[in-house]
Amino acid sequence: MSLVMYERVGHEDRRPSPFSWRIRYALAHKGVPVEFRHVRFADVETIRALSGQHFVPVVTDGDQVIHDSWNIACYLEDRFPAGTIDVEALHAAGLVPRTSHTVKILAEGELTKKFVVKASAFSGSAKEKIEKAGGTAEVVAD
Questions:
Q1: Number of Cβ atoms within 10 Å of the Cβ of 59
Q2: Whole-angstrom Cα distance, residue 98 to residue 84?
């Protein structure tokens, strides 16, 4: 089974939904491969036919359809309990341009779970936060 995430796009393919971005971050955090399908703002019927409601994001996993960002986040946590964040996961989530191969992780926010982060460089405080949460910060070659 493969994950597919449906999200609305606006003018110039902008993704304005903060709820969709939350799930993109969660997917990147877990390193889960996903196919993104963009739905134009005016195309409400595509989302409604898929999930019975008109809000995004919507994630499908085989025959299972999950909507509402909280429900999706809980589903991802149950289905993929641990993950690795690397440049490919950040590319797949659309958080880092595919042309960027050198990524430095900076510290912003708090971590409550342990995970492995692989990047070109880390700020001292980012490395400290990752390790404090029980994870590891691995420097990898570009």
A1: 26
A2: 18
Sequence ranges of the domains in the chain: 3-79, 101-139
Closest CA to 135 of 109, 111, 119, 102: 111
Q: Which fold has domain 101-139?
A: Ribosomal Protein L15; Chain: K; domain 2 (3.100.10)
Residue with tokens 């609305």: 8
Tokens 């050198």 sit on residue: 102
- pTM of the prediction? 0.59
Instruction: Please report the pLDDT score of residue 82 as a whole number.
Output: 67
Instruction: Dig out the tokens for 115 from the structure.
Output: 């995970």
> What does residue 24 show for φ and ψ, rounded to 5 degrees?
-60, -45
CATH of domain 3-79: 3.40.30.10
Distance between CA 71 and CA 94 in Å, rounded? Answer: 21
Query: CB neighbours of 35 closer than 8 A, spacing ≥ 6?
Result: 2, 3, 4, 5
